[in-house]
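A.,

Following up on our hallway conversation. Structure tokens first:
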């Protein structure tokens, strides 16, 4: 795949990079010549990915990062700037999907999703903005979901967090015009990742696992959407991409 050189040498920070969408995106962007800075909680998985990318001739760096901790997210982005001189793209990808009817009162799960899916994205924006404002360039990519467009029973809080990502991203888009910063929301349908594994509800869990097994497409489908948005000419701002498996009805 030949792209314009809008990606080569760009410094890209990716949260949730130890598996799934983040890992697939790190691989593709690294192969296209980007410098990737990877954050996630599982340091061993991150290091294995850095080693793999480096052995393939890529430039990669990792820092254990819990996106619920504002300081850790700031440290990740600051480390990218310190090491490589700038930050061109931040992909706020870390996410958690738990599903249960509200009446089950799984408030700890509600808190988890709000902390990771909403606050984690806000912390990523907060970490990136000062650098991108002073550079007068940058691209912030936030990961929503089909659930950011539709509401499903048992998905109420998850859907709320993913709707919030779209609202935050649109507000950001309007505010960053003076700084030449681009913003993209990517909303995947069923993509094969660890996302369904965190559902504890005995009814919702098996149903969603079965749905994913029947329909999910590979994670590099998401990575190609990221690549498409990034590699547009600087005056083109792809604000939103919604994609699903061809067979997905929901």
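Then the amino acids I'd put at each of the 250 positions:
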């Amino acid at each position: 795949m030949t792209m314009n050189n809008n990606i080569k040498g760009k410094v890209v920070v990716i949260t949730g990079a130890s598996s799934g969408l983040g890992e697939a995106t790190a691989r593709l962007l690294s192969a296209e010549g980007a410098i990737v800075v990877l954050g996630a909680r599982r340091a061993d998985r991150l290091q294995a990915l850095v080693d793999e990318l480096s052995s393939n001739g890529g430039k990669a760096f990792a820092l254990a990062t819990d996106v619920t901790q504002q300081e850790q997210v700031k440290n990740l982005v600051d480390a990218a700037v310190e090491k490589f001189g700038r930050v061109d793209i931040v992909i706020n990808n870390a996410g958690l999907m738990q599903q249960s009817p509200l009446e089950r009162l799984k408030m700890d799960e509600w808190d988890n999703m709000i902390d990771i899916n909403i606050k984690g994205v806000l912390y990523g924006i907060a970490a990136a903005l000062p650098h991108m404002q002073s550079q007068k360039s940058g691209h912030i990519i936030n990961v929503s979901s089909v659930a950011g467009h539709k509401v499903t029973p048992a998905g109420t809080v998850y859907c709320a967090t993913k709707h919030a990502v779209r609202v935050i991203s649109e507000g950001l888009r309007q505010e960053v015009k003076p700084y030449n910063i681009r913003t993209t929301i990517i909303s995947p349908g069923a993509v094969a990742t660890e996302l369904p594994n965190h559902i504890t509800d005995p009814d919702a869990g098996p149903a969603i696992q079965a749905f994913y097994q029947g329909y999910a497409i590979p994670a590099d489908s998401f990575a190609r959407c990221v690549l498409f948005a990034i590699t547009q000419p600087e005056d083109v701002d792809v604000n939103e991409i919604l994609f699903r498996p061809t067979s997905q009805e929901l």
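The longest strand covers residues 181-188. Curious whether your intuition agrees with the design.

B.
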